[in-house]
Specification:
The chain is an all-alpha fold. One of its GO terms (molecular function) is transcription cis-regulatory region binding.
């Protein structure tokens, strides 16, 4: 004000970080009091210690501050609808008049709060969330490097990454309920902003072939769209009860289907686009295990070989079993005779996948022996589970009864070893083995209870809540078939209940 009254340019001041509740009023009726209480504040707050007040932070969506503009930056040229992202106010917030809080304090608090919150979200994404989206983590995982490349260029990617991080942070074990509520609100707000920004870009027209461009896969727009949709899909994978991951996966498929998949990989040498397409293909394969509708069609599998730094050697093998099972089902429906299956071929393929997966341990240092031991157990568990899955898909109950018990015991032993291990870093890798083991334990109530407990613990410790639908299917299967006089194949059970069962992902 002094500069303005003199017609001078104001040089401004360095950032000042305010600390509430540390000043002492020097005059007036509150003189000598270190914590002035505005009239109308909750009287109970006056009698609480500072520690207790911090534990009673209020989650009032109407008392928030903007962080959208700081997250969005200024590098994009598009204009999107402005909304507010509500942040949990500090312990002092209940004592402030809401209107004053918005109008008077925002210009002081916003810049620091916005950058601080978004930095925390990005840090959580890179240090915690990515590790739950890959089989075994390593510093230069492609998902991290892609995010670093795109964060400064794309609003949509920034919003989607913040959305994913907030969703995962809200599900972290032992987080206070009020913080979880605020983080979940941030997730929802950032998700909506990301989708609005994404829609604005798509309304301008999807990239396609034209005389000026030889390959749509070389377009930065394609990378931005696929990266945003993929991150949003992963974000919904972390949210309990959400089915929106399907919506975002369909969006990825829409962009990808602009061209034959082989053309994408032949024409584009960009490692980013190749990684994104491989991730989309893997997600589709993992979803295929629960797809039993008559309109099931084989997906276009990525032509890239399974990668030890970003992929999982068992994914394509599991999908190959799924695809062949569906083909054989239609053969039976047509009244034709099924050709025999040589199980030694599938056992050999499982052994090859197991050996390739062990190469992932190269990124672990020798000091991480506990983690290395757990990963070996995870790989073995997938080996046994994949062979059992093949027996479930291709063999009669009598044939399965002869071979599966000797596979089930070591499978359960490896699951127990990981669950009792020194770290929960690999708990998210156990859902497929747990699902297959749960199917085979249908007539054993003690083992059913054990599998159920492992499922719940893995869900709560990892935050990958999309797998809860697989547990719900297991519980339905157990309740209906555990007392049946005849052995029931879980795939036949799923087909018989298509009207009430939605596709789930074992991720």
């Amino acid at each position: 004000m002094k500069c303005a009254s003199r017609g001078l340019d104001c040089p401004g001041f360095k950032t000042v970080y305010l600390k509430w509740d540390q000043g002492i009023a020097s005059r007036g009726r509150l003189a000598g009091k270190s914590t002035p209480i505005i009239k109308g504040a909750d009287k109970r707050m006056r009698n609480l210690s500072s520690k207790e007040r911090n534990q009673c932070k209020v989650k009032d969506p109407s008392r928030g501050v903007r962080i959208r503009d700081r997250i969005s930056g200024t590098s994009d040229d598009e204009q999107v609808q402005t909304t507010s992202i509500q942040i949990a106010p500090t312990a002092a917030s209940p004592m402030l008049n809401p209107a004053f809080y918005h109008v008077e304090a925002t210009h002081v608090v916003d810049p620091f709060l916005q950058s601080s919150i978004f930095s925390s979200l990005i840090n959580h994404f890179c240090t915690k969330a990515v590790s739950r989206l890959t089989w075994i983590d390593q510093p230069r995982h492609p998902l991290r490097t892609i995010v670093r490349q795109l964060l400064q260029k794309s609003k949509a990617v920034r919003f989607s990454v913040g959305c994913l991080a907030a969703a995962h942070m809200s599900m972290v074990p032992n987080i206070p309920g009020n913080q979880a509520s605020a983080l979940f609100h941030i997730y929802a707000s950032l998700r909506d902003e990301s989708m609005r920004t994404l829609s604005a870009k798509m309304r301008r027209g999807l990239p396609g072939r034209s005389p000026e461009t030889s390959s749509a896969s070389d377009s930065p727009v394609v990378i931005e769209l696929l990266a945003t949709m993929l991150v949003l899909c992963y974000a919904e994978v972390l949210v309990p009860g959400s089915k929106d991951w399907r919506l975002h996966l369909r969006g990825c498929r829409t962009i990808r289907d602009l061209h034959p998949l082989q053309d994408w990989f032949k024409e584009s040498k960009d490692p980013v686009i190749r990684f994104l397409l491989k991730e989309i293909s893997d997600l589709e394969m993992l979803t295929g295990i629960s797809m039993f509708h008559q309109d099931f069609t084989p997906i276009r599998v990525s032509p890239l070989p399974s990668s030890t730094d970003s992929g999982w050697a068992f994914t394509k093998l599991i999908y190959a079993i799924t695809e062949l099972e569906r083909e054989r089902y239609y053969i039976v429906q047509a009244g034709n005779t099924l050709p025999s299956i040589d199980m030694s071929v599938w056992c050999r393929r499982a052994e090859e996948a197991h050996n390739r997966s062990l190469a992932c341990m190269d990124c672990l240092c020798e000091s991480q022996q506990g983690l290395r031991d757990c990963f070996e157990a995870v790989s073995r568990a997938h080996y046994f589970a994949t062979i059992i899955y093949a027996y479930q898909a291709f063999k009669t109950p009598a044939e399965k009864a002869l071979a599966v018990p000797e596979l089930l015991e070591p499978l359960l032993a490896d699951i127990r070893f990981v669950m009792a291990g020194p770290t929960d870093e690999l708990f998210h890798d156990l859902f497929f083995p747990l699902f297959i083991a749960g199917i085979e334990c249908v007539y054993d109530p003690l083992r059913r209870s054990e599998i159920d407990g492992f499922f719940i613990e893995s869900l709560s410790r990892t935050g990958v809540w999309c797998n809860h639908s697989a547990l719900q299917f297991l519980r339905s299967f157990w309740s209906v078939t555990s007392t049946s006089e005849h052995t029931v194949n879980w795939m036949d059970f799923a087909r018989a209940n298509l009207s009430s069962m939605e596709a789930f992902i074992v991720f």
